[in-house]
Amino acid sequence: MHLYTGRCLCGMSQFSVNIDALDVYACHCTNCQKWSGGIAMYLETQGEPTVEQGSIAPSHFSSSSRGERWFCPGCGCPLWFELTPSGRYFVPWTLLDLSEDERRRLVLAAEIYTETQPAFWRLTGQYARFSGTEIEALDKSCSFTT
Fold first, then answer.
1. d(Cα 62, Cα 9) in Å, to the nearest integer?
2. Distances 109 to 47, 56, 75 between C-alpha atoms, Å
3. Which residue of 15, 109, 125, 141 pairs with 49 in a disulfide if CB–CB is 3.0 to 4.6 A?
4. Contact, 43 vs 93, CB < 8 A?
5. pLDDT tens, residue by residue, 34-92
6. DSSP string, the chain
7. Which residues contact 61 (CB under 8 A, 6 or more apart)?
8. Cα–Cα dist 42/74, whole Å
9. Are 19 and 4 in contact, with CB atoms under 8 Å apart?
10. Model pTM?
């Protein structure tokens, strides 16, 4: 497990997260599309993100029955998504202070909610692909990959 720091666009919201693996999950659900402006790409954290001392407290809202979205009240930057039924957290990898080597080691582990993926974008590679129905069934057992 490795501790990473991250911050929003304006720098008012700073946080740290523990991450086990640099496995990226690309979400195509319509809420993530609206929130990110495209494909939302997350790393799963080990436990709840910690807001750094002296940082502004993030705001949040319930975006669905499955989760809450946390964001900077200063610039509106998305900070993390909490999957409330299982208490799992996902942070956009782009917010984290990753070294050049760590960025090279990022791996696309899965695409989820593929039924709402627009036809004009396709990611390439060999990784898991799940529909919304499939991923929600896996969420109940707290597992993304089979």
1. 22
2. 20, 32, 30
3. 15
4. yes
5. 999 999 999 999 999 999 999 999 999 999 988 999 999 999 999 999 998 889 999 99
6. -EEEEEE-SSSS-EEEEEES--EEEEE--HHHHHHHSS-EEEEE-SS--EEPTTSPPPEEEEEETTEEEEE-TTT--EEEEEETTTTEEEEEGGGB---HHHHHT-EEEEEE-GGGS-TT----SS-EEE-HHHHHHHHTTT-S--
7. 68, 69
8. 22
9. yes
10. 0.89
Residue whose tokens read 């900077």: 72
Contact, 111 vs 95, CB < 8 A? no
Q: Which two tokens stand for residue 74?
A: 């200063």
Q: Which candidate, 42, 45, 46, 47, places its Cα nearest to that of 25?
A: 42
pLDDT at 139: 73
Q: Residue type for 139, please?
A: D
CA distance linking residue 100 with residue 38, whole number of Å: 24
The C-alpha angle with vertex 89 and arms to 32 and 63, in degrees rounded to 5, equals: 40
Q: Which pair of structure tokens corresponds to residue 141?
A: 């057992």
Side chain identity, residue 68:
E
